[in-house]
Amino acid sequence: GKKPGYPKPSLRDRLRHEAGWSFVRVTSKEICAGALRRGGYDLLVVPGGYAPNFAEALGEHGGRCIREFVSEGGGYLGICAGAYLGSMWGFELLPVEILDIDHWARGKTEDCRLCSTAAGGGGAGRGVAC
Questions:
Q1: Neighbours of 94 (CB within 10 A)
Q2: Checking DSSP bridges between strand 23-24 and strand 43-46, what pairing results, if any?
Q3: Mean pLDDT for each consecutive 10-residue tract of the chain (130 residues)?
C-alpha cells in the first residue's frame, strides 16, 4: 500500500545546508515526460521512503527514463529506499540483489554527513534533480 509523507523534507534541507547542493524537485510524472533529459541535470537523488511507492509511481517507463539518464552519464544517488530502486529489484542500475526485501533494515543515525568531493562537484555543474 501507499505510505504518505515521502520523500521527507529533511533530505532537501540536509542537501542544501550540509553539502551546499542546489537542486530542483522533479515528480515522477515529470521524469516520465522527459525532465531528466531536458533539464540538464548532473544527478538524480532518490531519497528514502517506501520503495514500492516510488516504483509504482514511476512505472516501467519512468524506470527506463532513469536508466537512459544514467547510461548517458547522469549520476544516481539512492538513499535508503532510493538505493533499493537502483538495485536489480528496481531500475537495475547496478548488479546488486536484495536478499531479504521483507526485512529491510530501516532506522536512523545521527552520524550521517552529506558532502561532495571536487570531482562530484555537488551539483555545481548543470544541477541536481531530487
A1: 14
A2: unpaired
A3: 62 78 88 92 86 90 95 90 87 80 58 55 48
